């Protein structure tokens, strides 16, 4: 070491010593009270024993308090709440050691309407309790602590996992909650099992209470609220629910065995399914009118026989989308969480529309294009009916000169006019209602679309042209004011549907014999529907618009190949052939019904 280094080290040492002396911290009363290591070593064994005994007395007092309150469950009353996350390809499930319950569920493939992660349940919006009646009173298992047999992990398709939450109560007594999850499923298997505790549990059933605030995930709050409720399905295969459109407090006591219940929203649901069935339930809903972040509040009180818990009560949870393809695999009747219309209409959706839609989306990613292809397929399939309806109207139009002659002949005698009109139709071989039958046969498909598009999760978040989400209304532009029954926005597809419907009505009137006010009503109906559908699914309005355009095109093609003079000649030929032909049974019944109606009207007028 050279001379300069020695001087440098000496200066540094001098500075450190000076700093330690000058800036020495003052001695506090706590420092004086705290024994030094030497003083600690001087504590006598008697003092140590005294401190240990005091600590044991405190611990014994705490344990006595827990035993007095929880009895045989006292060992589960102490613990620390820790989270366990199991993630698969479609969801992230978080469990808590406190209660051994599912704490939160995030659906990974979906977002809320404003782009946030879609959290279906969490500890702020959901709470569960599992209450047993014991010799110490009611014990809520969800307040006690469990130990997990698993750490957090991720699963992929093809994987499966089963793990336990166990609360060991000593002397062979325990409670187990067993969960199972697949790598690509929204279903969580759940089994709760009690070992021992026969002399402690005195009740005949466990009361499972699930309180859930159904969060807002969609832009249209009012639409979300009238499509959110609690649904249930009995073991007798009977579906029921609390009325979704009712904003008042609703409550219903269910006494029949229940297979499953769900908090059902427009596109998502959280439900519980029992293998043996719940012996009873109490369900209720209400709307928090001032809280726009919550669609509805729901609550389920479910009864589970204690006898089932000793052998293991097997259940399932479902946390996921209202996708028909997925729901029909969960459990019988669970697909009914998606409302597809009245019975006849729902079967059209289930057997025709949904399979066709699912087939097309395998090959086409643009849902606007899928809608156009569906319209084209349906219109081609119904083309024979469309053609028949048009020809029937053309025949009625060809008879207009004869009908005008009858009006001049009978004057204002309506009864005589109807009789002569029916006679003319019979002679000419024209069925006046034949043009209506094809339209009636097309109605189930028309109504099926009315229920399919607004409830199809496949359209959720899918854009087309200016529509950012085909499952809800599109906005061409916003208005600076609100129009009653219409809203404060203009839906572009609804506007196009209205214009095309008016065009279609005008086209029909060219071959229709309808006159007077009835002819004008056809132009008012599209305006009414413009108000009704302005806040409906833009996919639905787009479907009706495309349907009108294709129908108009079909009629233009049919008209080019229909010769009205030829039709009229055919009708007169029918008149000659039917000159000696009697009335058919249908025609006779129709005339009899008309006569009976006219007689009833005459009697009413005579009484006045």
What this model shows, in words?
The protein is α+β, with helices and mostly antiparallel strands. It is built from 18 helices and 22 strands. A 9-stranded antiparallel beta sheet has the order 7-9-10-11-20-17-16-13-14. Strands 6-5-12-19-18-15 form a 6-stranded antiparallel beta sheet. Strand 2 (91-96) and strand 3 form a beta hairpin. The protein is elongated and about 105 Å long. The relative contact order is 0.07.
Short description:
Residues 84-352 form the Membrane insertase YidC N-terminal domain. The chain has helices spanning 3-22, 29-33, 37-41, 45-70, 221-225, 306-311, 324-327, 343-361, 367-381, 383-398, 400-410, 414-428, 436-452, 492-509, 517-532, 538-560, 564-577, 585-607, and strands at 83-87, 91-96, 101-111, 117-121, 126-134, 137-140, 147-148, 153-154, 160-170, 173-182, 187-195, 205-215, 229-234, 239-241, 250-254, 258-264, 268-278, 280-286, 294-305, 313-321, 477-483, 487-490.
